[in-house]
Amino acid sequence: MIGLNGDISSETVSESKKSLFFSLLTRNLAAETGSTATASATTHSCATRDFLKPREWPAFGSGALDELSRLRILIAHGGGFAPYQIGRFGCAHRNRSSVSINTKTSPRDLLRRFYFDALTHDPKSLRLLIDQVGPNHIAIGTDNPFDMGYQGPLGELDKVQNLTSDERECICCRTAESLLGEG
Fold it and tell me: Which of 182, 154, 150 is nearest to 168 (CA)?
């Protein structure tokens, strides 16, 4: 799900950055899902030398998110690869000029701008995601109508170690309400 909260056309964003960001994002989303409505954060280019170049992970390298401050992006399946390799993105940002040339914002700070569903199929992975981005950036996920979803998504939260009632409330309700402009 890619969502806009507010009108981004009023923001001063160069058309070239908008075009680059959305064309790359759309290409990656289409490659992953066959649609631009949902996305996995994984990318098929991870085995290449160019993986950490801005064109291969536009969210962290294009600079567009610096300018599109009200754009909200929800990444399915717990964010795929991104939340668990944020240290690597940060290392590349600090050490490779080709990665940081278009943005001075750290990948860790950019990661906190994304939203994620809780559909990780592993309570330890979900705990790490909660610790990385906070429960206010995670919404419950079902994977319906596909066959990889949970039979009881709320029950899956009970398996997450040390999940507080506040974290559960965020994941079950408040994050979605906020994304929909109701919270």
Answer: 154
